[in-house]
Amino acid sequence: MSTRVRVVAFVVAALAVGAGAAYLKFGRTTDEVSELLAEGSEKVLRERIRPSRGAPRVLVFALDGVGADAMEAVIRSGRARNISHLLGKPRPGEPGVYRHAYAVPGVLSILPSTTYAAWTSLFTGQPAGRTGVTGNEWFAREEDRFYAPAPVTVTQHTHALQVYSDQLMGTVTRVPTLYEQANVRAYVSLAALQRGADLVTIPDPKAFGPMVSAAAEGLDDDDEGSVSREVFEALDLGAVGSLLQSIRRRGVADLQVVYFPGVDLWTHAAPDPLRAQQAYVETAVDSAVGEVLAAYRRRNALKDTYVLFVADHGHTPVMDDDRHALGAEGDDEPPQVLRQAGFRVRPPELVVEDDEERGYQAVVAYQGAMAYVYLADRSACPRPDDRCDWRRPPRMHEDVLPVVRAYDAANRTGAGVAAMRGTLDLIFAREPRPFGQSAAPYQVWDGARLVPIAEYLRAHPRPDLLDLERRMAGLATGPYGNHAGDVLLLARTGMHLPLADRYYFSGRYHSWHGSPTDQDSRIPLIVAHPGGDGRRLRARVHAAAGARPTQLDITRVILSLLGR
Ligand SMILES: [Zn+2]
Questions:
Q1: How far is it, in rounded angstroms, from Cα 124 to Cα 127?
Q2: Are the C-beta atoms of residues 273 and 267 closer than 8 Å to each other?
Q3: How far does residue 433's CA lie from ligand 1's centre (Å)?
Q4: How far is the CA of 309 from the centre of ligand 1 (A)?
Q5: Cα of 498 to ligand 1 centre, how many Å?
Q6: Per DSSP, what are the bridge partners of residue 433?
Q7: Could you give the CA distance from residue 159 to residue 162 in angstroms, rounded to a whole number?
Q8: Ligand 1 centroid, distance to 261 Cα (angstroms)
Q9: Are residues 84 and 516 in contact, defined by beta-carbon separation less than 8 angstroms?
């Protein structure tokens, strides 16, 4: 599947919210689209919008895919005038301290460093094994159901659309959201998790329909560069345009999240991804930030508002070709290893309609640098027309270990699937547990046996994989840890490797993420207060979350700034 089609998968779904025309081109018009179009650019989520409480307010700019170094480069360039002006000059000799802001050093994302899992954790304060949202797509074995709010192995956009039409992320997120915990008037601009907020704004179809239709025609063309930056700007700036209308009509919220998904999508698609990303933030994002700040200033609300810049993950450039993109279909892709180990593999479809294909014994879900492999106890469903009971765990020796050994062999020698040779960094597996019990922590395959992560790292130091044991535990243990599979494959990747040695689980792109490396994992957490003092903000952050906060502390920091 081409890069273009993969890029389309999310863009179209997201833009469909604002423009039925683009969606119609892909022949997937649905009731949800019509419903959204009828409602226009604002959707009220509560019976009655909570009254505004007033100061102190919090305004969060959520930049998808903009890592800590990328954000710092933007600020240093001086070209993002609105952001630079808000922060003021850095204070020499005081790491992260600006005149009016504090940029917390060394903040790490959860694992996987991938969009849906990371945002859900950021806006709940809980790791993926507790939120239930372990990636851009995952298999909920207790429901025998595949979820793909941002499809990677599957091409259907139904769930991406339901994120906005039916608050899908609110349904699947198993812990309280930031908005529920804060219980103040909250607006969400385009962010996926909305449960507990008062309203969500999305791009206005009237303003962006024509542009999106033109872009959608371009997307049919398989030419390099046919996905233009304007498509993503339409998404990011369109949503902010709708938000400004809602502010004019209703006043500002006590808690506002402004989400920019377009910057991530553009980084995936742009041929020179990191440079393209920086330019996008310096222009498109910075101007949108300026517009929102101006709207607050006009209402005399800015001086009482804490302004945050956060992200879900960074980006690692990769090669946009079939060799480096580990796909979901075909004889030279990772699922073939499962077939050769004797498993019937679930077809890469959101819903398996064909009765004859429902007897699958293995499922894969892709997260860029990581892939989850879910296995059934295949002794209970041996015949092709048997449907496996996915509430039942697989067997360690008969189901899990044969798969681990098969991937290890494919990776070492190309056995079975020649194209897999040298593509994997680590293979994780763990003792299966029945649903209802907390899932066991992942262990690392050392070539002969599974060993605890800490023990493995003592024997094979990997300083490039940051805080691996703790972050893997957050993903894999807890009541929904089994949403991260029975076997987890980590692709070889990282900035320390030549471009030609980096791999990723997905269709073709110019950039991906998802790994425990610094480039994918280190995220900005900047707290600014217009006219405020950066040192005082540092003290506020430390008081709320300690000296070394992670992505999981951001909800806590926001609640503290709100005085909750
Ligand atoms: Zn993302």
A1: 8
A2: yes
A3: 30
A4: 14
A5: 23
A6: none
A7: 5
A8: 7
A9: no
3-state secondary structure at position 4: helix
Q: What is the DSSP string of 262-301?
A: HHHHHHHH-SSHHHHHHHHIIIIIHHHHHHHHHHHHHTT-
Residues with Cβ within 8 Å of residue 426, at least 6 apart in sequence = 444, 445, 489, 490
Nearest C-alpha neighbor of 22 from the set 250, 192, 217: 217
User: Across-strand partners of 24?
Assistant: none
Q: How far is residue 304's CA from residue 289's CA, in Å, rounded to a whole number?
A: 17
At 294-324, the pLDDT tens digits run: 999 999 999 999 999 999 999 999 999 999 9
Q: What three-state secondary structure class fits 464?
A: coil
Predicted confidence band of residue 206 (pLDDT cuts 50, 70, 90): low
At which residue do the structure tokens 């997905």 appear? 506
CA–centroid distance, residue 366 to ligand 1 (Å): 14
Q: Which helix (H) or strand (E) holds 527?
A: strand 525-528
Please state the φ and ψ torsions of residue 275, each to the nearest 5 degrees: -70, -40
Q: What percent of the chain has pLDDT over 70?
A: 89
Report the distance separating Cα 165 and Cα 167, nearest Å: 6
* Environment class of 356 (CB within 10 Å of its CB; exposed 0-12, middle 13-18, buried 19+): exposed
Please report, as a single letter, which amino acid is at residue 193.
Answer: L
Which has the closest alpha carbon to 333: 395, 407, 388? 407
Residue given tokens 């919090």 in the structure block: 58
* Cα distances (Å, whole numbers) of residue 111 to 134, 312, 399, 510: 8, 10, 25, 21
Q: Residue 104 Cα, ligand 1 centroid: separation in angstroms? A: 20
CA 487 and chain centroid, separation: 21
Contact predicate 307/61, CB 8 Å: yes
List, for residues 510-554, the tens digit of each pLDDT value. 999 999 999 999 999 999 999 999 999 999 999 999 999 999 999
The mean per-residue pLDDT over the stretch 276-280 comes to 98
Q: What is the 3-state secondary structure (H, E, C) of 381-425?
A: CCCCCCCCCCCCCCCHHHHHHHHHHHHHHHHHHCCCCHHHCCCEE
Neighbours of 353 (CB within 10 A): 9
Distance 380 CA to ligand 1 centre (A): 38
Q: Would you say 75 and 83 are in contact if contact means Cβ atoms under 8 Å apart?
A: yes
Separation of 116 CA from ligand 1 center, angstroms?
A: 7
Cis-peptide into 112, omega within 30 deg = yes
For 323-379, write each residue's pLDDT tens digit: 999 999 999 999 999 999 999 999 999 999 999 999 999 999 999 999 999 999 999
CA of 345 to the centre of ligand 1 (A): 28
Backbone CA torsion sign across 176, 181, 187, 188: negative
Of the candidates 440, 524, 434, 427, the residue with the CA atom closest to the CA atom of residue 475:
440
Q: Which stretch of DSSP H or E encloses residue 140?
A: strand 138-140
Placement of tokens 């800590």 in the chain:
68
